[in-house]
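Follow-up to my earlier ticket, as requested here are the two runs.
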Amino acid sequence: MSDGDDEPEDADALAERLAAAESELADAETEADLDEVEATLDAIETDIEEADLPEPDEDDEDADDPREELEDDLSTLRDDLEEARGPYAEDVIEEVEGIESEIEGTRWTEDGLPDVRAAIEAFLDAVDDVLGADIDDTLSEDDEIEALTAALDRAIEAVDQGELDPDDDAETIAELLSVTDDLANAVDDAEEWDDLTVREQLQVEGFYDVLGHYKDFPPEWSALKEWEKRGRADMIVLGFETFDSGFMEDHCKDALARMGSEEALEPMLQLAQRRDQDAIRVLGKVGSEEAVDQLLDYIDPDGDAALQRVTATALGEIGSEEAVEPIAQLLAADHDDVRSNAARALGLIGDPRAIEPLADLVEEDDEDTVRASAAWALNQIGTEDALAALDGYEDDRAYLVQAEAEKAAAAIGA
């Protein structure tokens, strides 16, 4: 203990030491002075931990806890100590790096980017004046984000190489922080893409350029129809990613499903992560193998029936052989419409491994609609074994099964 006593200090003595440390902190003028205060606080913290202080009466909610009060006072002094430190050159660098990240991560409008460029030019000039450095502040109207952040890197390097001392160069560091704040404010004021309304964003992107006389309201719907006619899935995706209307988003997904364009793959994969059934439906129409792994995660015979139906159908339309066994598991699902969709999905894939479970479904399932879907799937597979599995069902009780059996018989005869 700091006073050399063998006995731990009491609460009053520790409180007096904290008060003395507070005065010491108020008088500190240099970083070295602050380091001494920090060492004092470290010693007091150790002594508080070792002190044999009275415990508060558990039955008295208003009773004081000396240890808690001392620890609170110590924590407050540590906060005051941190506020008293600096500023440092590292603070300037950290703030500039934060602004740099904001500039890189923001989409700027045609009006906003020139304002950002002008703010950086002014900042570089100010840093030159404060440091007496010779920073290359050459920027042109054609400079994009990469060139602008490179200019900020030059300013960071100049501050770092200045080796500014927090005591001797406190005024210089304060000036640099001031011009950095000016830069931050100017960047905040520059127009970002997100500052535009949805309609303004679409206008800039040319979404409405196809509109002449239109009868559908809102105009976005008419533009959407026209882009679909022109086969421009990229513009449909643009609308989908920009609209804040569930009505228009649904129409975008319907259009993308009809078009089946790979332009829809990435946005629909992202949406399908939330098990959005419309997005899964679109992925089936796109037919890309890239969606298979994600869709297989949603195959669960005990899961949501509606999700099972749309997922099985999408996997069938994609036609991946990897999906045969997972889909075949759905043939035992409780819901007859899930079994039916699974059977048709296996037919779309056309893998002969599905022949036996489909034949069993035709023979054993209680629902004729499911049996008919299995019979249809066997005809889709179309191998000799698949067609032969329908032999004997020409007089079946269900007309659709009978029709598929006759179709198989005709194919074998041909």
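Run two:
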Amino acid sequence: MRKNVFIFDQNKCVGCHACVVACINENGFQSPDQWRNVHSSNNPHLPQLPLLYLSLACNHCDDAPCLKNCPSLAYSRDEKTGAVIHDPKKCIGCKYCTWACPYDAPKFNLKSGIIEKCTFCNHRIEDELKPACANLCPVGALDFENIEFNREESVESSPVPVNIGSNLKTVKLRKETGPEMDLEIFKNQTKIDIQTKKHNKITAQKEWPLIVFTLLTTGLVSLYTSGITKIFNSTHKHIFTGFIIISAALSILHLGKKLRTWRSIINIKNSWLSREIGFFALFFASVFCNFYLFNLPDLLVACFGLLYLFSIDMLYRIATWRWELKIHSAQTILIGISLFAFFIGWYYLLVFIISFRLTIYVYRKIVITKNDLILSSLRAILPIIAIIMLYNSQYYILSLILIALGEVIDRIEFYNELNVPDPKIEFESQNK
């Protein structure tokens, strides 16, 4: 199949950044990050290591994750050129595409509150011209052609191990060890190990509104599903509804374009973010109806709540986890079951689910992450103390507080342990 493809020759690139400058000149000022980046395998230019470069922008993939996962349908494809185009007028600034893209192509502009990205210089391609970056590369390392390029070649050329049909053909190094270097003058020097500093796009500090939102709404779903709200008086119902409204407001805080929030449910067919928001809206609407208008079947409301929690967990599956098992002790489904068992008084179920989650937690902390052991010990102890205290009913509220504190710690660690593929890190690690 013939398609428009970037061709990058690793043997020729000298890291001059002419491609980056050409992109800026053609498309205008790009803030805070350039649409095209030149990654180095040896940023300190240490003589013991080869100095290689990778020029990378949007690869306009056949199965573009940004296009598929965008909740507001801000992305589209030009069927003639193959370019994946971002429409700034439709973008809500949720940054979900920056999580989904393995090439770090979508860039969030904090000033404008929306995403920006490489356009493939679509206007130039339509005029049968090469994109500016490829056109102005002085050494011919970056080129652009319409060629036969199949999925197998795409996977082989990808700087990140993904199979999404990226339109980047990489001409590999003629020698796997990189350029020949005379290291005799450095033979008496101590070998220097470069520790790459990883920049996480997803952190608890950045996403604190989502932490509060997910924990608060999970608690509300569990509380309503347990049936306790049936004995609520008018004041309690108002408070419960108020918490749902506060939760909805928190979910909007991280959006760059808050007034476009309504667009977040447009892509329910493909985006788990749209589904999450849609099921949350259905749960809220059904609770409101039961409180103030007319009764809906409790099973229906519970299903909306369960689907909402499931959607939250699916939302984060696109991120890179630090371990292969896609089960985390802080997933909302597990939190929801724990709180449901607590509220309804099924303490045997509570002990079972807490034990299961703590087993996962301890395994992850000891075998995989091996960090924050003091905080981890606190997280592990809190639910155990809470369960012991349940034997005395007067400690019911205190037990709930201890369990809630444990959930907060676990959820914070959940966000800090997530990450998205970083082509810079991949490139550096492959060429050490």
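The only thing I checked on run two: The beta strands are 2-9, 37-40, 53-56, 75-77, 84-86, 107-109, 114-116, 142-148, 168-171. Let me know what else you need.
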